[in-house]
C-alpha cells in the first residue's frame, strides 16, 4: 500500500489584478486562496453560509418554541386555547420562514 497519495501539480500564472481579486473573493468567504482556486476549478462555484444568519434563525426558533410551550401549557390547564394565541404563533412561524428564505437567498447570492 502506498504511503502518499498521487498528485498532479500545475503552475498557473495570474496578473497582479487577477490575483488580488482571487484573494479578495477567497477572504470574503473565509477560505485559503489555494483552497478557493481548487474548489472553483473543480466545481465552478462555492456555496458560503453566513453563520450570523444561522444564529438569528436559532434565536427565533427558541422564541417560537417557548411560545408553543406556553400555549400548550395554557391549553392543558384550561382545556381551551384562544384564537389570538394561534394567530400569533402562525405569524411568528411566517416571520421565521421569511427570515430563513432571505438567509438562503443571501447565501446563494454570496456564491463566488
Attribute tags:
mainly alpha, 0% strand, 112 residues
Largest sheet: none
Helicity range:
over 70%
The SSE string, one letter per element, is HHHH
Could you tell me the radius of gyration in angstroms? 24 Å
The gross shape turns out to be elongated
Mean pLDDT: 77
Structural class comes to mainly alpha
Please tally the β strands and state the result. 0
SS summary, helix count: 4
**N→C terminal distance:** 38 Å
Q: Segments where pLDDT lies below 50 for 5+ residues?
A: none
Word description of this protein:
With 112 residues, the chain is mainly alpha-helical. The model has no long low-confidence stretch (mean pLDDT 77). Helix content is 71%, strand content 0%.
Task: Briefly summarize what is shown.
The chain is mainly alpha-helical and 112 residues long. It has helices at residues 16-28, 33-43, 51-78, 83-109. The chain contains four helices and no strands.
Q: How would the blueprint of this fold be written?
A:
Elements: H1 16-28, H2 33-43, H3 51-78, H4 83-109
Helix pairs in contact: 1-2, 3-4
Amino acid at each position: 500500500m502506498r504511503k502518499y497519495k498521487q498528485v498532479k501539480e500545475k503552475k498557473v500564472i495570474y496578473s497582479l489584478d487577477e490575483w488580488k481579486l482571487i484573494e479578495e473573493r477567497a477572504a470574503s468567504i473565509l477560505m485559503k486562496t489555494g483552497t478557493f482556486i481548487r474548489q472553483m476549478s473543480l466545481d465552478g462555484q462555492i456555496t458560503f453560509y453566513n453563520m450570523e444568519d444561522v444564529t438569528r434563525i436559532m434565536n427565533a426558533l427558541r422564541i417560537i418554541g417557548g411560545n408553543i410551550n406556553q400555549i400548550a401549557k395554557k391549553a392543558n390547564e384550561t382545556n381551551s386555547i384562544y384564537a389570538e394565541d394561534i394567530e400569533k404563533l402562525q405569524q411568528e412561524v411566517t416571520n421565521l420562514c421569511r427570515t430563513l428564505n432571505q438567509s438562503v437567498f443571501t447565501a446563494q447570492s454570496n456564491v463566488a
